[in-house]
TrEMBL record:
Keyword Nucleotide-binding: yes
One function term, GO molecular function aspect: ATP binding
Official protein name in the record: pyridoxal kinase
CDD domains recorded: HMPP_kinase (cd01169)
Keywords, ordered alphabetically: ATP-binding, Kinase, Magnesium, Metal-binding, Nucleotide-binding, Transferase
Reactions that this protein is recorded to catalyse: pyridoxal + ATP = pyridoxal 5'-phosphate + ADP + H(+)
Known EC number: 2.7.1.35
Protein family: Belongs to the ThiD family.
GO cellular component: cytosol
Domain of life: Bacteria
Domain Pyridoxamine kinase/Phosphomethylpyrimidine kinase positions: 11-258
Length: 265
């Protein structure tokens, strides 16, 4: 059985973060390791987020458990809540990104467009993107990484993808690009330096998308772990997400999540 490590945050509501990653890896018949970087909680009356970073020595010990204690076949990054943690992970990737595929999900927001940690963009740009086999920013994160104020149309999304690829990654998949197109679609943009591919899909009108970004990146990482190319990994992940959104369901009055078939083996 192939093994994959996720270095990411814990979502107390279960739909995103480490919980989404491990659930996705299991559906791909992969053995998942995890290193928790932060615990995210929700206020029960407003569903606003509480963010509680984990101490660096604890994170370091978790990473060593997987990488030095066992070995892995792929690595997926999620929420890394401080520049110090980002720099520490960079130290591992300098070695491991030469051995195994790496997916960087540059988490800067939980929901909306206000960054959890404003200094993240520069640290991620400097220390993480260069190691990525694929990076999977949403529109807001892509603009931050590309040094753009905002992405408001398809041409700006393409320019952001060019700038992000220039940071050293092998491929970029910008999610939710269809939101700034007319008519609105569920299109995502893939770019590997050779061609731009808009992965189209009919827009499904639901706000039950909690964990969508984490889960998409986890599917990409799982596919890479199984030997798929970056393009194949992203396209297969897109198809999986379509199925998950179609089977969405409500967690409570504030948020809903995705549901998937039994297996992607």
């Amino acid at each position: 059985m192939k093994k994959i490590l996720t270095i990411a945050g814990s979502d107390s509501s279960g739909g995103a973060g480490i919980q989404a990653d491990l659930r996705t890896f299991a559906k791909h018949d992969l053995y998942g390791f995890c290193a928790l970087t932060v615990i995210v909680t929700m206020e029960t009356d407003t569903w606003s987020h509480g963010v509680f970073p984990i101490e660096l020595p604890v994170i370091d010990a978790q990473i060593k458990t997987a990488l030095e204690g066992v070995d892995v076949d792929a690595i997926k990054l999620g929420m890394l809540p401080t520049p110090a943690i980002i720099e520490n992970v960079d130290g591992y990737l300098k070695t491991w990104a030469k051995k195994v595929p790496v997916v960087v999900d540059p988490v800067m927001v939980c929901k909306g467009n206000k960054p959890l940690f404003p200094e993240h963009a520069e640290a991620i740009r400097t220390h993480l993107i260069k190691h990525a086999t694929v990076t999977t920013p949403n529109l807001f994160e892509a603009a931050q990484l590309a040094g753009m104020e905002e992405i408001t149309n398809y041409e700006e999304a393409k320019e952001a993808a060019r700038r992000i690829l220039a940071l050293g990654c092998q491929a970029v998949a910008i999610t939710n690009v269809g939101r700034v197109m007319a008519p609105k679609t569920s299109g995502d943009l893939f770019y590997d330096g050779h061609e731009f591919v808009l992965m189209e899909g009919a827009f499904i009108d639901t706000h039950h998308t909690h964990g969508l970004g984490c889960t998409f990146a986890a599917h990409v990482a799982a596919n890479l772990c199984k030997g798929f190319s970056p393009r194949e990994s992203v396209f297969e992940a897109k198809e999986a997400i379509k199925k998950g959104i179609k089977n969405h369901w409500a967690l409570n009055q504030f948020v809903g999540t995705l549901d998937f078939p039994d297996s992607f083996k």
